[in-house]
Design brief:
Elements lengths: L2 H19 L5 H10 L7 H12 L7 H14 L2 H4 L3 H12 L6 H15 L8 H12 L7 H4 L25 H4 L12 H17 L3 H12 L10 H18 L11 H10 L1 H10 L4 H10 L1 H6 L3 H18 L6 E3 H7 L12 H13 L5 E5 L5 E5 L8 H30 L2 H20 L11 H4 L8
Antiparallel strand pairs: 1-3, 2-3
Helix pairs in contact: 1-3, 2-3, 3-4, 3-6, 4-7, 6-8, 7-8, 8-11, 11-12, 11-13, 12-13, 13-15, 13-18, 15-16
GO cellular component, one term: cytoplasm
Pfam families: COP9_hel_rpt
Subcellular location: Cytoplasm; Nucleus
Length: 468
């Protein structure tokens, strides 16, 4: 990276600040015309400087024209230049996420695009992530936000060992290096913000019936480490949803992650008892008991805003019974399926073979069941279960390998930053000193031990469990 480029950008920023402070012409009258002369993709800093002045604290000038320029900027700015004006971009994103300056559908799309232009890997959490999630969920504009929400968060603002890079314009930098409260791209983030974000993400995935991702999002909330080892209100709410989603995702009640805090796990057993009772019956053939258990706690589902998820669970009960039949059969008649499965919505078997066949066809169409419906010469209709996955063709395999290689390359700066952060942490250094001393002591006693040496659990957790 040429240092002259960084110097040029800094000089340009100084001149822009002077120009905006004392413009030769009033920007409220001529700002929109000035934007017509600037290309937001080429001169992003100049464009944003004028745009920021026209938008904040209030929109000045022709409103429709300025808002059109705003959208054009957010969709097309040069991310390299914008690294030098993070605070101005954050103020613009905050304004847009307010939901009053642009139509929500446009605002969500524009902010989502801007976030990923700054950090294509989507690995760094910022205050704009939570603002985006709130706007997307509250206005039901979920689809355009998913490209951000689906990204795996690796870094958070305020993490230790941050140091200012020599050149912000270095495009090989990890997002944790140039996206920081010191560079202005984010406000400080508290634990409550992270929990709310994952909670909203889980609810958005639920609205799309993406139970796999919803389960993972709620699980992040449920297992979040707390200072006193207990659980907050939002963690308890997430646990209830996590139980229901686990039934939809796995077909049964799953145990809490091993890394869940003991005190939190104990609270969940009490606070989530009605949900656990439903979960315990889901993996049985007692459809009537499940229906009764659900009806008994209708008031609880309403108070917890989980009526929709409960209905999804009742609907999925018979579907999971059908899917579990593939553990016994490779091929089974529709008539047998009707006799062996029941609906939790009615507590009994379906009234006709046509009803069960229609249910199975819908499952196949939605890809929740791998199978085909066939008819024998005697007219008997069968369901044949298919393998969960089929072998890829050579071309498909090559395409998957190329896609994986691109993903791994994108993760390289993240890996390097994580490795550096680990290598300079106090806990890791203490652990390495202990390991070197242990190795020296053991080599004196038995030089043949080599790989047989092990690390005590206490040492592995040193500095992790007791740092809060």
């Amino acid at each position: 990276m040429d240092p002259a480029l960084a110097t040029f950008i800094q000089t340009h920023l100084v001149k822009l600040a002077e120009l905006i402070k004392e413009p030769p012409l009033p920007l409220d009258q001529y700002g929109a015309q000035l934007l017509e002369l600037i290309d937001p993709e080429v001169n992003s800093l100049s464009y944003m400087a004028v745009l920021h002045t026209l938008l904040l604290p209030n929109v000045t000038g022709p409103r429709e024209v300025i808002l059109e320029k705003l959208v054009k900027f957010l969709l097309g700015f040069d991310p390299r230049q914008i690294r030098y004006a993070g605070s101005h971009l954050l103020e613009i994103l905050t304004l847009v996420c307010g939901g009053s300056i642009l139509p929500p559908s446009v605002a969500v799309e524009a902010v989502s695009t801007a976030i990923l232009k700054i950090d294509p890997a989507g690995a760094m959490f910022t205050s704009s992530h939570l603002q985006l999630a709130r706007l997307a969920y509250s206005t039901n504009n979920i689809d355009p936000a998913l490209k951000v929400i689906e990204k795996n968060i690796v870094f958070y603002p305020g993490m230790a060992n941050w140091k200012k890079p020599s050149m912000l314009c270095d495009m090989t930098l990890s997002p944790s290096v140039y996206i920081h409260k010191e560079t202005g791209f984010t406000n400080p983030v508290k634990a409550a913000s992270v929990l709310e974000y994952d909670m909203l993400a889980g609810m958005m995935f639920c609205s799309k019936r993406d139970w796999t991702k919803a389960h993972a999002a709620f699980e992040r909330v449920v297992s979040y480490p707390t200072r006193d080892g207990g659980c907050s209100k939002i963690m308890a709410e997430a646990y209830k949803k996590w139980v229901l989603v686990s039934l939809l995702f796995k077909g049964k009640l799953v145990p809490l992650p091993l890394y869940t805090g003991p005190a939190a796990a104990k609270n969940y057993q009490t606070l989530g008892k009605p949900y656990k009772d439903v979960g315990s019956l889901f993996d049985t053939t007692n459809a009537g008991e499940l229906r009764t258990e659900v009806e008994k706690s209708n008031q609880i589902w309403q108070e917890d805003n989980n009526v929709g998820l409960i209905q999804e669970v009742l609907s999925a009960y018979q579907e999971w019974q059908i899917k579990n039949l593939q553990n016994i059969y490779s091929k089974v008649s529709i008539a047998e399926i009707r006799q062996q499965t029941k609906s939790a919505q009615t507590g009994s078997i379906l009234s006709s073979d046509d009803d069960i066949e229609a249910l199975i066809r819908n499952m196949i169409i939605s890809n929740s069941l791998k199978g085909v419906i066939e008819k024998n010469d005697d007219g008997t209709v069968f369901l044949t279960f298919l393998p969960a996955s089929t072998a890829l063709s050579e071309a498909e395999f090559a395409q998957e390998m190329t896609k994986t290689a691109v993903q791994l390359k994108a993760l390289d700066p993240i890996f390097k930053a994580t490795n550096e952060r680990l290598g300079t942490s106090r806990e890791y250094i203490k652990h390495m000193i202990k390991e070197q001393k242990r190795a020296a002591d053991k080599s004196e006693l038995d030089p043949t031990m080599g790989f047989e040496s092990h690390v005590d659990d206490e040492d592995l957790m040193g500095g992790v469990m007791s740092t809060t």
